[in-house]
Queue: 2 jobs
Job 1
Amino acid sequence: MDLKTFCRDLPKIELHAHLNGSLSRSTMLHLKRFYADSGLEDNTNAFFDEFQIGAGDCRNLSDCFQVFSIAHALTSTPEALAMATTLTLQEFHSDGCCYIELRSTPRNTQYMTKEQYVDTIVHCMQKSSIHLSMLSRLIISINRSYPVSEAEAIADLAIESYKKYPDVVVGMELSGEPTVGKFQDFVPALTRARNAGLKITLHCGEVCNPEEILEMIKFKPGRIGHGTCIHPKLGGTDDTWSALCTSKIPVEVCLTSNVNTKSTPDYESHHFKYLYEAGIPMIICTDDKGVFTTSLSQEYRICAETFSLNQVKVARLALEACQYIFAEDVQKTLKNKVQDFINKYCLSQ
Ligand code: IMP
Ligand code: ZN
Protein backbone atom coordinates (compact mmCIF):
# COMPACT_ATOMS: atom_id res chain seq x y z
CA MET A 1 0.00 0.00 0.00
CA ASP A 2 1.42 3.45 -0.85
CA LEU A 3 1.99 5.82 2.07
CA LYS A 4 -0.86 8.17 1.18
CA THR A 5 -3.44 5.36 1.11
CA PHE A 6 -1.94 3.80 4.22
CA CYS A 7 -2.22 7.06 6.17
CA ARG A 8 -5.81 7.54 5.02
CA ASP A 9 -6.96 4.00 5.78
CA LEU A 10 -5.18 3.77 9.14
CA PRO A 11 -7.79 4.27 11.90
CA LYS A 12 -6.68 7.55 13.48
CA ILE A 13 -7.36 9.47 16.67
CA GLU A 14 -7.78 13.28 16.54
CA LEU A 15 -7.30 14.98 19.90
CA HIS A 16 -6.57 18.61 18.98
CA ALA A 17 -9.03 20.15 16.53
CA HIS A 18 -10.74 23.53 17.04
CA LEU A 19 -14.17 23.47 15.43
CA ASN A 20 -14.07 26.96 13.91
CA GLY A 21 -10.54 26.45 12.63
CA SER A 22 -11.48 23.13 11.05
CA LEU A 23 -14.07 24.43 8.58
CA SER A 24 -13.11 23.41 5.06
CA ARG A 25 -13.66 25.53 1.99
CA SER A 26 -16.62 23.36 1.09
CA THR A 27 -18.18 23.73 4.57
CA MET A 28 -17.74 27.49 4.47
CA LEU A 29 -19.41 27.66 1.09
CA HIS A 30 -22.35 25.65 2.48
CA LEU A 31 -22.56 28.07 5.40
CA LYS A 32 -22.41 31.14 3.18
CA ARG A 33 -25.21 29.73 1.07
CA PHE A 34 -27.23 28.93 4.20
CA TYR A 35 -26.86 32.51 5.44
CA ALA A 36 -27.82 33.93 2.06
CA ASP A 37 -30.85 31.61 1.74
CA SER A 38 -32.00 32.50 5.27
CA GLY A 39 -31.67 36.22 4.62
CA LEU A 40 -29.06 36.48 7.37
CA GLU A 41 -26.06 38.76 7.23
CA ASP A 42 -22.83 36.83 7.69
CA ASN A 43 -21.10 40.12 8.53
CA THR A 44 -18.06 39.20 6.57
CA ASN A 45 -17.00 39.86 3.06
CA ALA A 46 -13.78 38.06 3.71
CA PHE A 47 -12.80 35.67 0.99
CA PHE A 48 -11.79 32.17 1.82
CA ASP A 49 -8.21 33.04 0.83
CA GLU A 50 -8.05 35.25 3.91
CA PHE A 51 -9.14 32.39 6.15
CA GLN A 52 -6.44 30.03 4.94
CA ILE A 53 -2.86 30.41 6.12
CA GLY A 54 -0.27 28.69 3.93
CA ALA A 55 3.43 28.07 4.53
CA GLY A 56 4.59 31.27 2.83
CA ASP A 57 2.01 33.53 4.48
CA CYS A 58 3.45 36.82 5.70
CA ARG A 59 1.01 37.15 8.63
CA ASN A 60 2.52 36.72 12.09
CA LEU A 61 1.15 34.51 14.88
CA SER A 62 -0.97 37.33 16.26
CA ASP A 63 -2.48 38.06 12.81
CA CYS A 64 -3.34 34.38 12.51
CA PHE A 65 -5.79 34.74 15.40
CA GLN A 66 -7.82 37.29 13.44
CA VAL A 67 -8.94 34.72 10.89
CA PHE A 68 -11.21 32.92 13.34
CA SER A 69 -13.66 35.82 13.27
CA ILE A 70 -14.38 34.87 9.63
CA ALA A 71 -15.51 31.41 10.72
CA HIS A 72 -17.33 32.82 13.75
CA ALA A 73 -19.43 35.05 11.50
CA LEU A 74 -20.66 31.88 9.76
CA THR A 75 -21.50 29.87 12.90
CA SER A 76 -23.63 32.36 14.79
CA THR A 77 -26.99 30.57 14.62
CA PRO A 78 -27.78 27.12 16.04
CA GLU A 79 -28.63 25.82 12.53
CA ALA A 80 -25.36 27.06 11.02
CA LEU A 81 -23.33 25.77 13.96
CA ALA A 82 -25.03 22.39 13.59
CA MET A 83 -24.22 22.36 9.89
CA ALA A 84 -20.59 23.30 10.57
CA THR A 85 -20.25 20.59 13.23
CA THR A 86 -21.91 17.85 11.19
CA LEU A 87 -19.95 18.57 8.01
CA THR A 88 -16.68 18.77 9.92
CA LEU A 89 -17.30 15.47 11.68
CA GLN A 90 -18.12 13.87 8.32
CA GLU A 91 -14.83 15.14 6.87
CA PHE A 92 -12.77 13.71 9.70
CA HIS A 93 -14.62 10.41 9.30
CA SER A 94 -14.00 10.31 5.53
CA ASP A 95 -10.32 10.85 6.25
CA GLY A 96 -10.16 7.67 8.34
CA CYS A 97 -10.56 9.17 11.79
CA CYS A 98 -12.18 6.71 14.22
CA TYR A 99 -12.30 8.95 17.31
CA ILE A 100 -12.27 12.72 17.63
CA GLU A 101 -12.19 15.10 20.56
CA LEU A 102 -13.40 18.27 18.91
CA ARG A 103 -12.95 21.46 20.93
CA SER A 104 -14.76 24.77 20.77
CA THR A 105 -15.23 28.02 22.70
CA PRO A 106 -18.90 28.58 23.62
CA ARG A 107 -20.12 32.00 22.44
CA ASN A 108 -23.21 34.08 23.11
CA THR A 109 -24.37 35.44 19.78
CA GLN A 110 -27.33 37.43 18.58
CA TYR A 111 -29.09 34.10 17.91
CA MET A 112 -28.01 31.77 20.72
CA THR A 113 -26.66 31.55 24.23
CA LYS A 114 -23.48 29.75 25.25
CA GLU A 115 -25.66 26.94 26.62
CA GLN A 116 -27.39 26.56 23.25
CA TYR A 117 -23.97 26.60 21.59
CA VAL A 118 -22.85 23.59 23.63
CA ASP A 119 -26.21 21.79 23.29
CA THR A 120 -26.09 22.21 19.51
CA ILE A 121 -22.64 20.65 19.16
CA VAL A 122 -23.46 17.83 21.57
CA HIS A 123 -26.66 16.95 19.69
CA CYS A 124 -24.74 16.81 16.39
CA MET A 125 -22.19 14.51 17.96
CA GLN A 126 -24.92 12.24 19.31
CA LYS A 127 -26.62 12.13 15.92
CA SER A 128 -23.39 11.57 14.01
CA SER A 129 -22.54 8.53 16.13
CA ILE A 130 -25.58 6.80 14.62
CA HIS A 131 -24.43 7.33 11.01
CA LEU A 132 -20.64 7.35 11.26
CA SER A 133 -18.21 4.69 12.42
CA MET A 134 -16.40 7.39 14.38
CA LEU A 135 -16.84 8.34 18.03
CA SER A 136 -16.86 12.02 18.88
CA ARG A 137 -16.44 13.85 22.16
CA LEU A 138 -16.40 17.53 23.12
CA ILE A 139 -13.75 19.57 24.90
CA ILE A 140 -14.96 23.01 25.99
CA SER A 141 -12.44 25.80 25.39
CA ILE A 142 -11.50 28.84 27.42
CA ASN A 143 -9.92 31.66 25.46
CA ARG A 144 -7.01 33.17 27.42
CA SER A 145 -7.51 36.56 25.83
CA TYR A 146 -10.98 36.87 27.39
CA PRO A 147 -11.51 38.21 30.92
CA VAL A 148 -11.11 35.73 33.77
CA SER A 149 -14.80 36.20 34.67
CA GLU A 150 -15.67 34.75 31.24
CA ALA A 151 -13.42 31.75 31.92
CA GLU A 152 -15.23 31.20 35.22
CA ALA A 153 -18.59 31.32 33.44
CA ILE A 154 -17.34 28.81 30.87
CA ALA A 155 -16.09 26.53 33.65
CA ASP A 156 -19.60 26.63 35.18
CA LEU A 157 -21.08 25.79 31.80
CA ALA A 158 -18.54 23.00 31.21
CA ILE A 159 -19.36 21.44 34.59
CA GLU A 160 -23.10 21.68 33.91
CA SER A 161 -22.68 20.22 30.42
CA TYR A 162 -20.53 17.39 31.76
CA LYS A 163 -23.32 16.48 34.22
CA LYS A 164 -25.92 16.72 31.46
CA TYR A 165 -23.96 14.86 28.77
CA PRO A 166 -21.36 12.66 30.52
CA ASP A 167 -21.18 10.49 27.40
CA VAL A 168 -20.08 13.41 25.19
CA VAL A 169 -18.41 16.22 27.17
CA VAL A 170 -15.02 15.02 28.37
CA GLY A 171 -12.78 17.99 29.02
CA MET A 172 -11.91 21.63 29.19
CA GLU A 173 -8.93 23.36 27.59
CA LEU A 174 -7.10 26.68 27.50
CA SER A 175 -6.31 28.21 24.12
CA GLY A 176 -6.27 31.59 22.37
CA GLU A 177 -3.48 34.01 21.62
CA PRO A 178 -0.50 32.78 23.66
CA THR A 179 1.00 36.24 24.23
CA VAL A 180 -2.19 37.50 25.87
CA GLY A 181 -3.39 36.65 29.39
CA LYS A 182 -1.72 34.87 32.30
CA PHE A 183 -2.07 31.14 32.90
CA GLN A 184 -2.22 31.57 36.69
CA ASP A 185 -5.40 33.65 36.36
CA PHE A 186 -7.17 30.66 34.80
CA VAL A 187 -6.00 28.08 37.34
CA PRO A 188 -9.07 28.44 39.62
CA ALA A 189 -11.49 27.84 36.70
CA LEU A 190 -9.43 24.92 35.39
CA THR A 191 -9.11 23.40 38.86
CA ARG A 192 -12.85 23.60 39.46
CA ALA A 193 -13.52 21.84 36.17
CA ARG A 194 -10.96 19.17 36.96
CA ASN A 195 -12.39 18.59 40.44
CA ALA A 196 -15.80 18.11 38.83
CA GLY A 197 -14.38 15.29 36.68
CA LEU A 198 -13.42 17.02 33.43
CA LYS A 199 -10.00 16.27 31.92
CA ILE A 200 -7.75 19.22 31.12
CA THR A 201 -5.51 20.03 28.17
CA LEU A 202 -3.52 23.26 27.85
CA HIS A 203 -1.97 25.02 24.87
CA CYS A 204 1.56 25.16 26.23
CA GLY A 205 4.81 26.65 24.99
CA GLU A 206 3.49 28.02 21.70
CA VAL A 207 5.76 30.99 22.32
CA CYS A 208 8.91 31.29 24.40
CA ASN A 209 7.73 31.63 28.02
CA PRO A 210 9.66 29.18 30.26
CA GLU A 211 8.06 30.43 33.46
CA GLU A 212 4.56 29.74 32.21
CA ILE A 213 5.57 26.37 30.76
CA LEU A 214 6.85 25.29 34.19
CA GLU A 215 3.63 26.48 35.84
CA MET A 216 1.59 24.52 33.31
CA ILE A 217 3.58 21.30 33.71
CA LYS A 218 3.30 21.64 37.49
CA PHE A 219 -0.50 21.85 37.08
CA LYS A 220 -0.33 18.30 35.65
CA PRO A 221 -2.79 18.59 32.75
CA GLY A 222 -3.87 15.36 31.06
CA ARG A 223 -2.24 16.56 27.84
CA ILE A 224 -0.61 19.67 26.42
CA GLY A 225 -1.02 21.20 22.97
CA HIS A 226 1.99 22.07 20.77
CA GLY A 227 4.88 22.27 23.27
CA THR A 228 6.88 24.10 20.60
CA CYS A 229 9.23 26.10 22.86
CA ILE A 230 10.04 23.55 25.57
CA HIS A 231 13.33 22.09 24.30
CA PRO A 232 16.38 24.30 25.13
CA LYS A 233 17.32 24.50 21.43
CA LEU A 234 13.84 25.84 20.57
CA GLY A 235 13.27 28.59 23.11
CA GLY A 236 12.86 26.45 26.21
CA THR A 237 15.35 25.84 29.01
CA ASP A 238 16.97 22.79 30.61
CA ASP A 239 14.34 23.10 33.34
CA THR A 240 11.33 23.15 31.01
CA TRP A 241 12.66 20.21 29.02
CA SER A 242 13.52 18.13 32.07
CA ALA A 243 10.10 18.92 33.60
CA LEU A 244 8.43 17.55 30.45
CA CYS A 245 10.71 14.49 30.30
CA THR A 246 10.00 13.69 33.95
CA SER A 247 6.25 14.27 33.78
CA LYS A 248 5.87 12.56 30.38
CA ILE A 249 2.69 14.56 29.74
CA PRO A 250 1.41 13.58 26.27
CA VAL A 251 1.89 16.29 23.65
CA GLU A 252 -0.64 17.02 20.90
CA VAL A 253 1.66 17.66 17.94
CA CYS A 254 0.39 19.86 15.08
CA LEU A 255 3.13 19.95 12.43
CA THR A 256 1.56 22.03 9.66
CA SER A 257 0.00 24.50 12.09
CA ASN A 258 3.42 25.19 13.60
CA VAL A 259 5.09 25.56 10.19
CA ASN A 260 2.38 27.77 8.69
CA THR A 261 2.27 30.11 11.68
CA LYS A 262 6.09 30.17 11.58
CA SER A 263 6.39 28.89 15.16
CA THR A 264 8.70 26.34 13.50
CA PRO A 265 10.84 27.29 10.46
CA ASP A 266 10.18 24.03 8.59
CA TYR A 267 9.03 20.43 9.12
CA GLU A 268 12.60 19.14 9.48
CA SER A 269 13.29 21.39 12.48
CA HIS A 270 10.01 20.54 14.20
CA HIS A 271 10.28 19.45 17.84
CA PHE A 272 8.65 16.14 16.92
CA LYS A 273 12.14 14.68 16.61
CA TYR A 274 13.15 15.70 20.14
CA LEU A 275 9.92 14.36 21.62
CA TYR A 276 10.22 11.11 19.66
CA GLU A 277 13.82 10.52 20.69
CA ALA A 278 13.01 11.29 24.34
CA GLY A 279 10.07 8.85 24.33
CA ILE A 280 7.57 11.55 25.27
CA PRO A 281 4.03 10.44 24.39
CA MET A 282 2.70 12.20 21.31
CA ILE A 283 -0.48 12.42 19.33
CA ILE A 284 -0.45 13.67 15.73
CA CYS A 285 -3.24 16.25 15.32
CA THR A 286 -4.44 18.92 12.88
CA ASP A 287 -5.22 21.96 15.13
CA ASP A 288 -7.14 23.91 12.45
CA LYS A 289 -7.43 21.81 9.31
CA GLY A 290 -9.47 24.50 7.50
CA VAL A 291 -7.12 27.37 8.23
CA PHE A 292 -4.01 25.33 7.44
CA THR A 293 -5.52 23.35 4.54
CA THR A 294 -4.57 19.99 5.91
CA SER A 295 -6.12 16.74 7.11
CA LEU A 296 -5.24 14.21 9.76
CA SER A 297 -4.02 11.68 7.19
CA GLN A 298 -1.88 14.37 5.58
CA GLU A 299 -0.30 15.15 8.97
CA TYR A 300 0.55 11.45 9.41
CA ARG A 301 2.04 11.31 5.91
CA ILE A 302 4.11 14.47 6.42
CA CYS A 303 5.35 13.08 9.73
CA ALA A 304 6.34 9.76 8.12
CA GLU A 305 8.11 11.44 5.20
CA THR A 306 9.90 14.09 7.25
CA PHE A 307 11.16 11.77 9.98
CA SER A 308 11.59 8.64 7.84
CA LEU A 309 9.09 6.50 9.73
CA ASN A 310 8.04 3.24 8.12
CA GLN A 311 4.40 2.19 8.06
CA VAL A 312 4.73 0.11 11.26
CA LYS A 313 6.07 3.12 13.16
CA VAL A 314 3.35 5.35 11.75
CA ALA A 315 0.67 2.87 12.78
CA ARG A 316 2.21 2.67 16.24
CA LEU A 317 1.69 6.43 16.64
CA ALA A 318 -2.04 5.89 16.05
CA LEU A 319 -2.12 2.93 18.42
CA GLU A 320 -0.34 4.81 21.21
CA ALA A 321 -2.66 7.79 20.77
CA CYS A 322 -5.52 5.57 22.04
CA GLN A 323 -3.99 5.66 25.54
CA TYR A 324 -4.27 9.43 25.79
CA ILE A 325 -7.90 9.96 24.89
CA PHE A 326 -10.10 11.50 27.59
CA ALA A 327 -12.99 9.01 27.16
CA GLU A 328 -11.33 6.15 28.99
CA ASP A 329 -14.32 3.83 28.49
CA VAL A 330 -13.67 3.49 24.75
CA GLN A 331 -9.87 3.18 24.83
CA LYS A 332 -9.92 -0.59 24.55
CA THR A 333 -12.33 -0.64 21.59
CA LEU A 334 -10.18 1.87 19.73
CA LYS A 335 -6.94 0.04 20.50
CA ASN A 336 -8.45 -3.16 19.12
CA LYS A 337 -9.54 -1.33 15.98
CA VAL A 338 -6.05 0.06 15.30
CA GLN A 339 -4.40 -3.24 16.26
CA ASP A 340 -6.64 -5.14 13.81
CA PHE A 341 -5.51 -2.79 11.04
CA ILE A 342 -1.87 -3.33 12.01
CA ASN A 343 -2.30 -7.11 12.04
CA LYS A 344 -3.89 -6.97 8.60
CA TYR A 345 -1.56 -4.57 6.84
CA CYS A 346 1.73 -4.35 8.74
CA LEU A 347 2.61 -7.90 9.70
CA SER A 348 4.83 -8.41 6.67
CA GLN A 349 6.98 -5.35 7.53
P1 IMP B 1 -13.49 27.76 18.23
O1 IMP B 1 -13.07 27.60 19.67
O2 IMP B 1 -14.27 26.59 17.72
O3 IMP B 1 -14.18 29.08 17.98
O4 IMP B 1 -12.15 27.73 17.36
C1 IMP B 1 -11.34 28.85 17.12
C2 IMP B 1 -10.60 29.25 18.36
O5 IMP B 1 -9.63 28.26 18.73
C3 IMP B 1 -9.74 30.53 18.18
O6 IMP B 1 -10.51 31.68 18.37
C4 IMP B 1 -8.66 30.36 19.23
O7 IMP B 1 -9.11 30.80 20.50
C5 IMP B 1 -8.49 28.86 19.31
N1 IMP B 1 -7.30 28.41 18.52
C6 IMP B 1 -7.28 27.88 17.29
N2 IMP B 1 -6.02 27.57 16.93
C7 IMP B 1 -5.24 27.90 17.97
C8 IMP B 1 -3.82 27.79 18.21
O8 IMP B 1 -3.01 27.35 17.39
N3 IMP B 1 -3.39 28.28 19.40
C9 IMP B 1 -4.23 28.79 20.35
N4 IMP B 1 -5.55 28.88 20.16
C10 IMP B 1 -6.04 28.44 18.99
ZN1 ZN C 1 -4.80 24.66 19.04
Job 2
Amino acid sequence: MKSVIFIAPPAAGKGTQSSNLVDLGYTHISTGDMLREEIAKESEIGLVVKDIISKGMLVSDEIVFELINNKLSNLDKPFILDGFPRTIKQAELLDNLLNKLDINNYEVIYLDINSEDAMKRALGRLTCNKCGASFNKYYEALQPIQEGICDNCGNTLVTRTDDNEESFKVRFNTFIENTEPIIEFYKSKNKLHNVDATMDSFDITNKIKDILKWLVLKVIEK
Ligand code: ADP
Protein backbone atom coordinates (compact mmCIF):
# COMPACT_ATOMS: atom_id res chain seq x y z
CA MET A 1 0.00 0.00 0.00
CA LYS A 2 1.44 3.31 -1.10
CA SER A 3 1.94 6.19 1.34
CA VAL A 4 0.83 9.70 0.38
CA ILE A 5 2.51 13.08 0.58
CA PHE A 6 0.20 16.05 0.03
CA ILE A 7 1.48 19.34 -1.36
CA ALA A 8 -1.18 22.02 -1.44
CA PRO A 9 -1.90 25.66 -0.79
CA PRO A 10 -3.71 26.52 2.46
CA ALA A 11 -7.32 25.36 2.60
CA ALA A 12 -7.03 23.26 -0.58
CA GLY A 13 -8.55 20.30 1.25
CA LYS A 14 -5.54 18.28 2.45
CA GLY A 15 -7.20 17.63 5.80
CA THR A 16 -10.53 16.62 4.24
CA GLN A 17 -8.86 14.26 1.76
CA SER A 18 -6.71 12.81 4.53
CA SER A 19 -9.78 11.97 6.59
CA ASN A 20 -11.49 10.46 3.51
CA LEU A 21 -8.49 8.14 3.04
CA VAL A 22 -7.46 7.36 6.61
CA ASP A 23 -9.95 4.47 7.06
CA LEU A 24 -8.12 2.53 4.34
CA GLY A 25 -5.44 1.91 6.98
CA TYR A 26 -3.20 4.96 6.91
CA THR A 27 -1.63 6.89 9.75
CA HIS A 28 -2.53 10.56 9.22
CA ILE A 29 0.36 12.88 10.05
CA SER A 30 -0.62 16.57 9.98
CA THR A 31 2.05 19.05 11.02
CA GLY A 32 -0.64 21.74 11.42
CA ASP A 33 -2.61 19.51 13.84
CA MET A 34 0.55 18.54 15.75
CA LEU A 35 1.56 22.19 16.13
CA ARG A 36 -1.96 23.19 17.25
CA GLU A 37 -1.82 20.36 19.84
CA GLU A 38 1.47 21.78 21.15
CA ILE A 39 -0.21 25.21 21.44
CA ALA A 40 -3.20 23.74 23.29
CA LYS A 41 -0.82 21.94 25.72
CA GLU A 42 1.12 25.21 26.17
CA SER A 43 4.32 23.20 25.68
CA GLU A 44 7.71 24.80 24.99
CA ILE A 45 7.20 24.32 21.23
CA GLY A 46 3.61 25.57 21.52
CA LEU A 47 4.72 28.84 23.10
CA VAL A 48 7.31 29.38 20.36
CA VAL A 49 4.95 28.72 17.44
CA LYS A 50 1.68 30.29 18.64
CA ASP A 51 2.16 33.78 17.15
CA ILE A 52 3.96 32.51 14.05
CA ILE A 53 0.96 30.35 13.14
CA SER A 54 -1.65 33.06 13.84
CA LYS A 55 0.19 35.39 11.49
CA GLY A 56 0.25 32.72 8.76
CA MET A 57 4.04 32.42 8.74
CA LEU A 58 6.05 29.19 8.57
CA VAL A 59 7.44 27.54 11.67
CA SER A 60 11.17 26.72 11.47
CA ASP A 61 12.25 23.67 9.48
CA GLU A 62 14.01 22.30 12.60
CA ILE A 63 10.88 22.32 14.77
CA VAL A 64 8.60 20.66 12.22
CA PHE A 65 11.24 18.15 11.18
CA GLU A 66 11.70 17.06 14.78
CA LEU A 67 7.96 16.31 14.99
CA ILE A 68 8.01 14.45 11.67
CA ASN A 69 11.16 12.50 12.49
CA ASN A 70 9.62 11.24 15.75
CA LYS A 71 6.42 10.16 14.01
CA LEU A 72 7.90 8.51 10.91
CA SER A 73 10.67 6.71 12.77
CA ASN A 74 8.11 4.89 14.94
CA LEU A 75 5.61 3.93 12.27
CA ASP A 76 4.42 0.47 11.29
CA LYS A 77 1.73 1.55 8.76
CA PRO A 78 1.67 3.51 5.49
CA PHE A 79 1.28 7.23 6.15
CA ILE A 80 -0.43 10.33 4.82
CA LEU A 81 1.76 13.40 5.19
CA ASP A 82 -0.43 16.49 5.40
CA GLY A 83 1.45 19.80 5.60
CA PHE A 84 5.02 18.53 5.23
CA PRO A 85 7.23 19.27 3.32
CA ARG A 86 6.53 22.96 2.77
CA THR A 87 10.04 24.11 1.82
CA ILE A 88 12.79 22.59 -0.31
CA LYS A 89 14.89 22.19 2.85
CA GLN A 90 12.06 20.13 4.39
CA ALA A 91 11.75 18.06 1.18
CA GLU A 92 15.47 17.24 1.37
CA LEU A 93 15.32 16.38 5.09
CA LEU A 94 12.34 14.13 4.40
CA ASP A 95 14.08 12.47 1.48
CA ASN A 96 17.11 11.62 3.65
CA LEU A 97 14.86 10.26 6.38
CA LEU A 98 12.83 8.10 3.97
CA ASN A 99 16.04 6.75 2.45
CA LYS A 100 17.33 5.93 5.92
CA LEU A 101 14.06 4.15 6.75
CA ASP A 102 14.14 2.41 3.35
CA ILE A 103 10.75 3.83 2.33
CA ASN A 104 10.17 4.48 -1.36
CA ASN A 105 6.61 3.27 -1.76
CA TYR A 106 4.83 6.63 -1.84
CA GLU A 107 3.25 9.13 -4.24
CA VAL A 108 3.11 12.91 -4.04
CA ILE A 109 -0.27 14.53 -4.69
CA TYR A 110 -0.37 18.20 -5.57
CA LEU A 111 -3.85 19.61 -4.84
CA ASP A 112 -4.12 22.45 -7.31
CA ILE A 113 -6.41 25.39 -6.47
CA ASN A 114 -6.43 29.13 -7.20
CA SER A 115 -6.20 31.72 -4.43
CA GLU A 116 -9.84 32.96 -4.70
CA ASP A 117 -11.34 29.49 -4.21
CA ALA A 118 -8.87 28.64 -1.45
CA MET A 119 -9.61 31.90 0.36
CA LYS A 120 -13.37 31.24 0.28
CA ARG A 121 -12.71 27.83 1.81
CA ALA A 122 -10.43 29.25 4.51
CA LEU A 123 -12.76 32.07 5.52
CA GLY A 124 -15.76 29.74 5.75
CA ARG A 125 -13.95 26.90 7.50
CA LEU A 126 -15.18 25.70 10.89
CA THR A 127 -13.11 23.10 12.71
CA CYS A 128 -13.62 20.80 15.63
CA ASN A 129 -10.78 20.93 18.14
CA LYS A 130 -11.82 17.63 19.66
CA CYS A 131 -12.05 15.22 16.68
CA GLY A 132 -10.45 17.36 13.94
CA ALA A 133 -13.50 17.33 11.63
CA SER A 134 -13.85 20.26 9.27
CA PHE A 135 -17.01 22.02 8.00
CA ASN A 136 -17.69 25.10 5.87
CA LYS A 137 -20.38 27.72 6.31
CA TYR A 138 -20.16 28.87 2.66
CA TYR A 139 -20.83 25.47 1.05
CA GLU A 140 -24.23 23.90 1.64
CA ALA A 141 -22.94 20.31 1.40
CA LEU A 142 -20.28 21.05 4.02
CA GLN A 143 -22.41 22.80 6.63
CA PRO A 144 -22.87 21.05 9.99
CA ILE A 145 -26.38 19.69 10.62
CA GLN A 146 -26.74 21.89 13.70
CA GLU A 147 -25.18 25.32 13.39
CA GLY A 148 -21.86 25.61 15.23
CA ILE A 149 -21.87 21.97 16.43
CA CYS A 150 -19.67 19.10 15.20
CA ASP A 151 -21.71 16.34 13.48
CA ASN A 152 -19.22 13.68 14.64
CA CYS A 153 -18.69 14.43 18.33
CA GLY A 154 -21.04 17.26 19.34
CA ASN A 155 -18.22 19.64 20.26
CA THR A 156 -18.51 23.38 19.54
CA LEU A 157 -16.98 24.35 16.17
CA VAL A 158 -14.43 27.14 16.01
CA THR A 159 -12.69 29.28 13.40
CA ARG A 160 -8.91 28.76 13.40
CA THR A 161 -6.92 31.85 14.44
CA ASP A 162 -5.13 31.81 11.05
CA ASP A 163 -8.32 31.55 8.97
CA ASN A 164 -8.68 35.31 8.46
CA GLU A 165 -8.02 37.29 5.28
CA GLU A 166 -4.70 38.77 6.37
CA SER A 167 -3.14 35.47 7.51
CA PHE A 168 -4.56 33.64 4.54
CA LYS A 169 -2.82 36.01 2.10
CA VAL A 170 0.51 35.51 3.89
CA ARG A 171 0.02 31.73 3.85
CA PHE A 172 -0.91 31.64 0.18
CA ASN A 173 2.04 33.84 -0.85
CA THR A 174 4.42 31.77 1.27
CA PHE A 175 3.12 28.68 -0.47
CA ILE A 176 3.64 30.18 -3.95
CA GLU A 177 7.19 31.22 -3.05
CA ASN A 178 8.15 27.80 -1.70
CA THR A 179 6.21 25.46 -3.95
CA GLU A 180 7.96 25.58 -7.29
CA PRO A 181 11.22 23.97 -6.10
CA ILE A 182 9.32 21.25 -4.22
CA ILE A 183 7.25 20.44 -7.29
CA GLU A 184 10.37 20.19 -9.43
CA PHE A 185 12.04 18.04 -6.75
CA TYR A 186 9.26 15.43 -6.87
CA LYS A 187 8.74 15.72 -10.62
CA SER A 188 12.36 14.73 -11.15
CA LYS A 189 11.74 11.67 -8.96
CA ASN A 190 8.66 10.75 -11.03
CA LYS A 191 6.48 10.97 -7.94
CA LEU A 192 4.32 14.00 -8.66
CA HIS A 193 0.61 13.88 -9.54
CA ASN A 194 -1.45 16.98 -10.18
CA VAL A 195 -5.07 16.83 -8.98
CA ASP A 196 -7.66 19.56 -9.57
CA ALA A 197 -8.72 20.50 -6.03
CA THR A 198 -11.75 22.50 -7.17
CA MET A 199 -13.60 19.27 -8.00
CA ASP A 200 -16.17 17.73 -5.68
CA SER A 201 -14.51 16.25 -2.58
CA PHE A 202 -15.68 12.69 -3.43
CA ASP A 203 -14.30 12.95 -7.00
CA ILE A 204 -10.97 14.17 -5.66
CA THR A 205 -10.79 11.18 -3.28
CA ASN A 206 -11.54 8.80 -6.16
CA LYS A 207 -8.89 10.43 -8.32
CA ILE A 208 -6.34 10.02 -5.51
CA LYS A 209 -7.36 6.37 -4.98
CA ASP A 210 -6.81 5.85 -8.70
CA ILE A 211 -3.31 7.28 -8.45
CA LEU A 212 -2.58 5.09 -5.43
CA LYS A 213 -3.89 2.12 -7.43
CA TRP A 214 -6.85 1.50 -5.19
CA LEU A 215 -9.70 -0.19 -7.04
CA VAL A 216 -12.18 2.60 -7.75
CA LEU A 217 -15.71 1.54 -8.63
CA LYS A 218 -16.78 3.71 -11.49
CA VAL A 219 -20.48 4.28 -12.12
CA ILE A 220 -21.30 3.24 -15.67
CA GLU A 221 -23.97 5.48 -17.17
CA LYS A 222 -26.73 3.58 -18.95
P1 ADP B 1 -3.24 25.04 5.98
O1 ADP B 1 -2.88 23.95 5.03
O2 ADP B 1 -4.67 25.45 5.89
O3 ADP B 1 -2.31 26.23 5.92
P2 ADP B 1 -2.08 23.56 8.24
O4 ADP B 1 -2.89 23.04 9.36
O5 ADP B 1 -1.42 22.58 7.34
O6 ADP B 1 -3.09 24.52 7.46
O7 ADP B 1 -0.91 24.54 8.79
C1 ADP B 1 -1.22 25.60 9.67
C2 ADP B 1 0.05 26.38 10.00
O8 ADP B 1 0.98 25.54 10.72
C3 ADP B 1 0.87 26.90 8.80
O9 ADP B 1 0.36 28.11 8.27
C4 ADP B 1 2.26 27.08 9.45
O10 ADP B 1 2.30 28.23 10.27
C5 ADP B 1 2.33 25.86 10.38
N1 ADP B 1 2.94 24.69 9.67
C6 ADP B 1 2.31 23.55 9.35
N2 ADP B 1 3.13 22.71 8.70
C7 ADP B 1 4.32 23.37 8.57
C8 ADP B 1 5.57 23.07 7.97
N3 ADP B 1 5.77 21.90 7.34
N4 ADP B 1 6.56 23.99 8.03
C9 ADP B 1 6.38 25.16 8.66
N5 ADP B 1 5.23 25.53 9.24
C10 ADP B 1 4.20 24.65 9.21
